[in-house]
Amino acid sequence: MLNLRFVRMFSLGLMVLSGGVVCGQDYPHKPIRIITNAAGGGSDFIARLIAQGISGPLGQPVIVDNRSGGLIQSEIVSRAPPDGYTLLVAGGSILILPLLQKTPYDPMKDFSPITLATKEPAVLAVYPSVAAKSVKELIALAKGKPGELNYGSGGTGATNHLAAELFRAMAGVNIVHIAYKGSAPLLSALIGGEVQLAFPSAPSVAPHVKSGRLRALAVTSAEPSALAPGLPTVAASGVPGYESASLTLLFAPAKTPDAIINRLNQEMVRFLKTPEAKAQLLISGAETVGSSPQQLADTMKAEMDRMGKVIKDAGIKLY
To answer: How far apart are CA 194 and CA 66, in angstroms?
Structure first.
């Protein structure tokens, strides 16, 4: 009898010590909620695509919960129970905003990384009258006319703003920032010649390049991209090591058991690697990644370190 009692107590101890494994075996047993930004945005599309792709294998409904209002999505998930039933699909701003202002979350401490889902490179585009048909020619032109070339962005701290500031720093050029209220006004300003260059998204700029209203010089991804066929990378065109992209990341609250994180990662990456998912994401302007949790953690740290330096050196502030 004592032996049986000992065995039961020992087994219970193992269950407590390996709670992540037990949770992973039982997970999930109820619907999962993915919180993301307002309906219709890029993160919303990716969240819905992933929700549809993983609900069957997980055996539970995966519901997308749209929340608008700045930091609210990240705050909700950072305070949610770490049980795998409240997840977050976020853009790269989740990493950048804490470098620009006080936020109610710490991206490195308040979340458990699941996977880097996608990257969305931009295109370095110029107004046709700009006397540069390559990145090297643009750099030479900017160095010959310091402070005379203007670049536009969708707003202070936006991805296309930081892409341009990274280019400015790495290429050693003096170009002047003009901020617009969003990517659409920026694109209109570039087409109208109000600014000479910008880093708009590949899908948004493609029809205007085709019509001759803009000239594309390079893509900002580390490797040539199917989103910008035929374009060289900025890195291979005179700015070695340059890379910029909008990211889509998936998180659970901090301290979510490893077994649950690994199960979610397995199903998400499996889905993201399917031809159907790749095709749909490519149409939306995104390249699939599907990283491990550790790879996402490493990407987060590297991106915050790199962009933190750019923001500090450029004196970028949100007012």
So the answer is: 35
